[in-house]
Amino acid sequence: FALGVFFNAHHLPNDLKMNGSYYAFQYMGQEFGMGQFFLYLFALTQALYMMAQLAVLLDAGTRMFLSDTAKEYLPKGLTKTDKRGLPINGYWLTTGICTLIMVLSATLPNMNSIFNQLLNLNGIVSPYTTCFLFSSFILVRLHDDKFKSDFTYIKNKYFAILVGIWCFAITFGAATLGIFPTDEKPGTAAWTHVLSLNIIEPLIMIAIGIILPLIARYQRTKETN
After folding, report:
1. What is the SS3 assignment for 48-81?
2. Which residues are CB-contacts of 48 (< 8 A; sequence separation ≥ 6)?
3. pTM to 2 decimals?
4. Alpha-carbon distance 14 to 20, whole Å?
5. Distances (CA, A) of 3 to 43, 76, 154
6. ∠ CA 161-165-170 to the nearest 5 degrees?
7. How far apart are CA 199 and CA 117, in angstroms?
8. What does the alpha-carbon distance between residue 131 and residue 174 come to, in Å, rounded to a whole number?
9. Taking the domains of the chain in order of start, what are their residue ranges?
10. Half-sphere exposure of 105 (CA within 13 A, CB side)
């Protein structure tokens, strides 16, 4: 309701996704006669929040990715840590992947298009990642004789598998539909450009997920021989 006071739904700013929150605080400052105070305060808070979030997500994500249970599927170089126990090579891998995605998205004509595409890309990659969770759930319930647990959320095996398939199908369908651009006019060069990025960038991440275990298996085979 508050945003509805500040924005005309029939004339929304073109960069609303990127700068909408800043516009809202700017208008709020003007409404209360405090100039740009709320805008600057929010910008500072947002900067600190994003830097903290980046540090936490980068560190936690990399540590989880390179955990002991994953070492079997990763090249040895990625699992090495420095004297502080930090997986420095994992950080470099994350930096490289992010840089590659940013460089590809930077081929779009302006910052607003880049921001929208990267924001929408998250709505593609995250659901596809969740599909692995549902597929794992289905496989575990199919072989529940091998995977014993003290707690079972859905007691009936076949109903649990049905729920897993339903969740997988909905999530996979939503992620696939997210590939089609919504911020560009269909049939234009910009629409085709964004569509190609929405296909290529997830495929790159999938390829990395396939290549790394293959390298790890090659290293193990070489050691045994």
Report:
1. HHHHHHHHHHHHHHHHHHCCHHHHHHCCHHHHCC
2. none
3. 0.79
4. 9
5. 18, 51, 41
6. 150
7. 12
8. 11
9. 1-61, 111-225
10. 21
Pinpoint the alpha helices (H) of 71-156. 76-79, 88-105, 111-142
Which residues are within 8 A (CB) of 142 and not within 5 positions of it... i.e. 6 or more apart? 161
More confident site: 6 or 96: 96
How many CB atoms sit inside 10 A of residue 30's CB?
14
Tell me which amino acid residue 184 is: E
Residue 86 — pLDDT band, cuts 50, 70, 90?
A: confident
Other residues' Cβ atoms within 10 Å of the Cβ of residue 24 = 19
How far is Cα 118 from Cα 113, in angstroms, rounded to an integer? Answer: 9
Two tokens at 129?
A: 């990642």
Q: Which pLDDT belongs to residue 74? A: 82
Contact 38, 26 (CB under 8 A): yes
> Residues, the chain, total?
225
Q: Identify the sign of the CA torsion 147, 150, 154, 157.
A: positive
Q: Crossing angle, helix 16-31 and helix 111-142, to 10 degrees?
A: 120
pLDDT at 70: 63
Q: What is the three-class DSSP state of 184?
A: coil
Encoding tokens for residue 19? 């700068």
The string of pLDDT tens digits covering residues 130-165 is: 998 999 999 999 988 887 777 888 888 899 999 999
pLDDT at 27: 87
DSSP classification of residue 19: H
